[in-house]
Specification:
With 443 residues, the protein is α/β, with parallel strands linked by helices. It has helices at 3-11, 18-30, 35-48, 52-63, 91-101, 120-125, 136-146, 159-169, 177-190, 211-227, 249-260, 269-284, 291-303, 306-317, 355-364, 409-419, and strands at residues 78-83, 105-110, 148-152, 195-202, 231-238, 246-247, 338-343, 348-353, 381-384, 391-392, 397-403, 420-423, 433-437. The chain is built from 16 helices and 13 strands. Strands 3-2-1-4-5-13 form a six-stranded mixed sheet, with helices on both faces. The protein has a four-stranded antiparallel sheet with strand order 6-9-11-7, sandwiched between helices. A three-stranded antiparallel sheet has the order 10-8-12.
């Protein structure tokens, strides 16, 4: 078997066999296939796509390119959730402990933020002492004791994806449904979960800006999981404005604590997406028969404080100080030298908020990374004061900035003003959820 022949075959739009795909992935991981040949192969995939069978084979080859996690010693259905990335998306820190409080087993491996999207690990590390690099045995112990743990991926989990993604990023092959689906699902499947809920974002702050592309990606990932014998469901949710009001690591931890403390209303978009994800997780785990029962259980976990206690216990078991995670002390996580309101220059209705620009503005303040080597400031960021559809008066605040480094402050303010569109008449407000993709939708 020769790599060049397989590149040519895919370049002609022909289907590759499972053995051929495994040959390419394994050869690249071992170093037998050079970057330039893998780049050519992935460009051929971008242009000609892959069949469902090919995409599953690619996912399987990537999944078994390194370590896999065995969660069989944990009780019940092992649950995971994944977001395709967004702005102000702190759902994991709320939904994972809530599901655990309802009897679920949530053993989650997460990633770090890059660009305008935030990472769950960075948010956890804004809590003093919290460790996310934990060995597998300790990870299992924490989940057994508390029902939930969120840690970083091991260095040898799906090494094929690490190499391939780094190459995709510099060869214009990122935007390919088969390559995106196999990248996400290889890591989720290698992490050992029985049931996975996917939050596929669409809109101005999402990787998939068009709803049709988000649906296609969701179906591809549900199909892969189903073929691998896992339960997978995908929610298509809106990212045409920040999901939560807070954008920044400690600020988003504060918002999660507020939600778990019952301080965020049920009409809030972040609350609703947390509920939607939690509902699907409980139903897939057999812990609720329907949405009504699941919502009731999740609401009870908020009202009783058990969801918050699970988050506090998780942080404690991972070496952190849980005393910060109370309404009385949460402000201690946010240490900045300057607060500043960005105010409206005219009255009108908020007709559009470009979420990606808001996320980039927070990154400029130091809340995010432009490259993986960048150091973030956990305290900085911004909190929105308006949502799409709201009316705003002249000189009323659009958002509040939390600032330490002022070197790009003016640039961030200018970007926020560009992101928030104010018109005389209210614009159309997008629904929070566009649909749910289940195994029935891929048949």
């Amino acid at each position: 078997m020769r790599t060049v022949d397989l590149i040519e075959k895919k370049a002609q739009g022909l289907e590759l066999s499972e053995d051929e795909i495994r040959f390419i992935v394994n050869g690249y991981v071992k170093g037998d296939i050079p970057d330039y040949q893998m780049s050519a192969f992935m460009m051929a995939v971008r242009w000609h796509s892959m069949s469902a069978k090919e995409t599953a084979a690619l996912t399987l080859a990537m999944m078994y390119s390194g370590d896999t996690v065995d969660l069989s010693m944990l009780p019940g259905v092992k649950l995971d959730k994944h977001s395709t990335g967004g702005v102000g998306d702190t759902t994991t820190l709320a939904v994972a402990p809530l599901v655990a409080a309802c009897g679920g087993t949530v053993a989650k491996m997460s990633g770090r933020g890059l660009g305008h999207t935030g990472g769950t690990l960075d948010k956890l590390e804004s809590i003093p002492g919290t460790k996310v690099e934990i060995d597998e045995d300790r990870f299992i112990e924490i989940v057994k004791e508390n029902g939930v743990a969120v840690i970083g991926q091991s260095q040898n989990l799906v090494p094929a994806d690490k190499k391939m993604y780094a190459l995709r990023d510099v060869t214009a092959t990122v935007r390919s449904i088969p390559l995106i689906a196999s990248s996400i699902m290889s890591k989720k499947l290698a992490s050992g979960a029985d049931a996975i809920v996917l939050d596929v974002k669409t809109g101005s702050g999402a990787f998939m800006s068009k709803k049709e592309d988000a649906v296609e990606l969701a179906k591809a990932m549900v199909r892969i999981g189903t073929l691998m014998g896992r339960k997978v469901r995908a929610l298509i949710t809106d990212m045409n404005q920040p999901l939560g009001m807070a954008v920044g690591n400690a600020l988003e931890v504060r918002e999660a604590v507020e939600l778990l403390s019952g301080k965020i209303p049920s009409t809030d978009p972040l609350y609703e997406v947390v509920m939607l994800l939690g509902v699907q997780m409980l139903i897939m785990a057999g812990l609720a028969e329907n949405e009504t029962d699941a919502r009731s259980s999740l609401k009870a976990a908020i009202d009783s404080g058990e969801g918050l206690r699970r988050l506090q216990k998780m942080v404690e078991l991972q070496g952190g100080d849980p005393s910060y995670l109370t309404m009385q002390n949460i402000h201690k996580l946010i240490n900045v030298s300057k607060h500043m309101d960005v105010t409206s220059r005219k009255a009108g209705y908020i007709s559009k908020i470009e979420a990606e620009k808001i996320g980039t503005a927070a990154q400029m303040l130091g809340a995010g990374r432009a490259t993986k080597a960048d150091v973030i400031d956990p305290s900085v960021g911004l909190v929105m004061k308006v949502r799409c559809g709201d009316h705003i008066n002249l000189d009323e605040p659009i958002c509040k900035l939390y600032v330490n480094d002022e070197s790009r402050l003016d640039e961030a303010v200018a970007l926020i003003r560009k992101a928030v569109h104010i018109t005389e008449e209210p614009g159309e407000v997008n629904p929070m959820i566009y649909g749910i993709i289940t195994e029935k939708d891929i048949l």
